[in-house]
Amino acid sequence: MTRDDHEANHDHDAYQDDRARERTDQPDDDSVPDPTDHLPDGVHASGPSAQPVTGGRDPTRVTDGGQTLGELDDAALDRGPLERWVERSIQHPERVYRSMFYVVTIFFLITTLFPFYWLLMVALTPEGNLQDIVFTPNGFNPGAFIEVFEVLPFHWYVFNSFVIATASTVIVLVVGSLAGYAFGRLDFPGKTPMMLLVLVVSFFPPAAFFIPLNDLFNTQFAILEPITGDGSLYNTPGAMVLPLSAIFMPLTIFILTTFYAQIPDGLEDAARVEGTTRLGALFRVIIPLSAPGVATAGVLTFIAVYNEFFFSFLMTDGQPENWAPILEGILGYQGQYEILFNLMAAASIIGVIPVAILVVVAQEKIVSGLTAGALKE
Predict the structure, then answer these.
(1) Which of 120, 141, 162 is at the close of a domain?
(2) Nearest to 363, CA basis, from 308, 292, 262, 305
(3) Given this model, what pLDDT does residue 45 score?
(4) Whether residues 130 and 173 fall in one domain
(5) What SS3 class is residue 350?
(6) Which of 135, 302, 325, 333 is the most buried (most CB within 10 A)?
(7) What is the pTM of this model?
(8) 34 pLDDT band (50/70/90 cuts)?
(9) What is the number of structural domains in the chain?
(10) How far apart are the C-alpha atoms of 307 and 324, rounded to whole Å?
(11) Rounded to whole angstroms, how far apart are CA atoms 120 and 128?
(12) Mean pLDDT on 197-224
């Protein structure tokens, strides 16, 4: 072996000894500290920064819509107040219903009950203190409700309106029941065009009929002299009952037609088998079974005629003995030089009482009549 071979072997052995020494000096894997041991649970190091992990999931995962959770959070932050309100409303619909109830209640109180409250405040305030009313009466004068009948015979105006409204309601219900029975339960040629004609007539304004009716009712007829004296209908109940009945007749016919058509034919046939006529079946079977519709039509007609002013103002001279209605009486407290606002307010409250009593008594029939047919089972 030459000298060069000995030197090569020596260098190789030295290299192997150095490699063995390095392996001996290197610590075990278990003894090497984990650089992520100091991080809290649920967080791992990824790249230069650590990201939190919820439930072992990557927050930057792609959702079904192709957006990451981070992008969804940013979109939620970008929503406006209206969008956030809509989202909360969808999640909690009971809050929406409660809010709608409060809004409707407040609207009803402001638009319906507050005017009556203000009338009461005006009626209870003495005449000279009306300009200082806020939300309570400036003074206390309940005697205005008695003074109403002392200044004018206001009770006669109320009586006139009550009689005219009752007579008009009876005529409308009788004629409307016959027409409703014919349109609702019988088949005859021209039924649909006639029904449409009735509805079209109801759309005409009352003022369109005044000139011909005023000319007719001021004409003297010999046949009317035993009843009216001068032969004309002016200053008589007929001057108001006839046109008002004709004006409110189409609505009654439409309501009663709908109700009468819903009565089963077998009930009417059974009544006719027992010996009654068609007219008897109408008044004994059909009308009692359609009581909600009849009550609704009657109450609506009574209230409308009771509060009517146009024909009553033009067909009478405003005197209670000539059948002037209640609105003429309320306007009677308005003189040439002064207006008795407290008496007008008191008279208005008194005039509302009969209508309020009627509505309270018939409210169940009215509600059932207005909502009939709204739902089908």
Answers:
(1) 141
(2) 292
(3) 47
(4) no
(5) helix
(6) 325
(7) 0.69
(8) low
(9) 2
(10) 12
(11) 16
(12) 85
**Listed residue (208, 211, 206, 199) closest to 253, CA to CA:** 199
Is residue 199 situated within a structural domain?
yes
317 to each of 234, 247, 348, how far by Cα in Å?
A: 9, 22, 20
Q: Is residue 196 part of a domain?
A: yes
pLDDT bin (cut points 50, 70, 90) of residue 154 is: very high
Same domain assignment for residues 148 and 267: yes
User: In Å, how far from its chain's centre is CA 68?
Assistant: 46
Task: Supply φ then ψ for residue 45, to 5 degrees.
Answer: -90, 130
CA distances from 264 to 10, 124, 261, 279 (A): 123, 55, 8, 16
Distances (CA, A) of 258 to 290, 368, 371: 10, 14, 12
Q: Are residues 93 and 200 in the same domain?
A: no
247: pLDDT strictly greater than 60: yes
200 with 249, same domain: the answer is: yes
User: Do 90 and 231 reside in the same domain of the chain?
Assistant: no
Give me the residue label for tokens 């009544």: 271
The domain containing residue 182 runs over which residues? 144-370
**Residues 157-198: tens digit of each pLDDT:** 999 999 999 999 999 999 999 999 989 888 888 888 998 888
Residue 353 token pair: 């009482």
One domain for residues 301 and 344: yes
For residues 297 and 294, give the distance between their C-alpha atoms in angstroms, rounded to a whole number.
Answer: 5
Q: Which helix (H) or strand (E) holds 43?
A: strand 43-46
Closest residue by Cα to residue 127 from 141, 107, 112, 108: 141
